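Problem statement: downstream parser choked on a complex file, so we are re-checking the raw output for the adenosine-5'-triphosphate run. The parser issue turned out to be on our end (a line-ending mismatch), but while we're here, posting the original submission so the record is complete.
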Amino acid sequence: MFDRTYIEDAKASVGQTITLAGWVSRTRDLKKIRFIVLRDKTGDIQVVVKPDNEQLFNLDLGREDVITVTGRAVESNVAKAGVEFQADSIEVINKSAQPLPVDIMENKKSDLDTRLNYRFLDFRAPTTNAIFRIQNALLTAFRNYLSGNGYMEFQPPCIIGSASEGGADLFSIPYFEKMAFLAQSPQLYKQMCAISFEKVFTITPIWRAEKFNTPTHLNEVRQMDIEQVFSDDETVMGVLENTLVHMLKEAKEKTAEQLKLLGRELDIPELPFRRITYTESIQMLQDEGESILWGDDFTKTQEKLLTELVGKEAFFLKDWPGAQKAFYAMPYNKENEVDAKYLEETYGDVEMGDKVVRAFDCLYSGIEISSGTMRIHMPELLRERIRYKGLNPDNFEYYTGAFAYGAPPHAGWSIGLERITMTVTGMSNIRECCMFPRDRDRLVP
Ligand code: ATP
Ligand code: MG
């Protein structure tokens, strides 16, 4: 439809007549010259209009009007980019309503609520734009890294017939004659795919019906998950740290300009990440006077404090109490020689095998960004763990049954896309890192 040249390419076509297309960022009208800053996805350029072109000189232009400009790029030692654009003609494609409801120049930044109400416009503000360019780099890196390492991408269903984790925090929806639920995780589906396809990953939305009111929780989240067979918790912790480092390196390289705009210096964590046990970390917090008991979950403040104590940007917290993690987390087996040796070496007590399971969290920049476990692949043990959680195994037949026909040992994890974006961009509110956040109060846009 439009034979257009992107602004970044205009610089390479000095002297030729070309047409640019984009938005009017601002105009500056002086007596003898008119400047229009034109913007497209590749950057901006100063368009110069001389008074001898009366029609262009007097053309009514406002912020965010969509225009095309035909003319020539010329070298300039005043323009920031080293070139400016001399306009021969301008076509107004679509006028923007005025005034703009959010300050996308970010001189006086509008409040988050207003920005979210006008998200389509807020995307044009440099910092918001940078956040989602960075998020895109993280997503692309995740997908490329796993695809390149033999993982197959799969798509789980989002409407499910029953709870995958047995929890109550599910949104229910009417589904013809029955009730259905929005998936709180792709758990069962990734396991079902892995036990046939061996190494799989997905990027999928999930929903949590908790009445959160925190800067780190949304009710709709995008999760980046993997699952793989012939693997235990340590195997997939290795995959996680490598994937994460790859994602961070890619973001650092591909969105250097955006990170700079946000004032972020991205330090790539060293491999391998430090591993500390849940039990050790409880001790560390107690030594600092925190009121936390063995068996408790950490508050977000305690996660931050722990990061200060461990002194590492990214680390694993492993061997969680069984009560804190889902029923499908693999317990240690004291009777097994390898497990017994690990328990003895780590805790000086094989009996700890009855208390902790092969589950881990990854903390990055003081916040949980990922959780994973080795899963139980034996239906009988699964039923036992479901009972141990006070649930009825008969209600989980659809789940336990999947492992009755040759399921290898397997493990996996999940990274929250908005959480990782938050840590990389340095935002303090997760809503900044979700294009169209869903929280307790927000369902539009
Ligand atoms: P948290 O303890 O932080 O509430 P969780 O342990 O309930 O999270 P998991 O079930 O482990 O969450 O989900 C895997 C990852 O998905 C988390 O590590 C996090 O990055 C992300 N995530 C989970 N729930 C949310 C949420 N409500 N809002 C934003 N991200 C979330
Ligand atoms: Mg978790």
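For whoever reads this later: The pocket of magnesium ion (ligand 2) is lined by residues 361, 368, 371 (CB under 6 Å).
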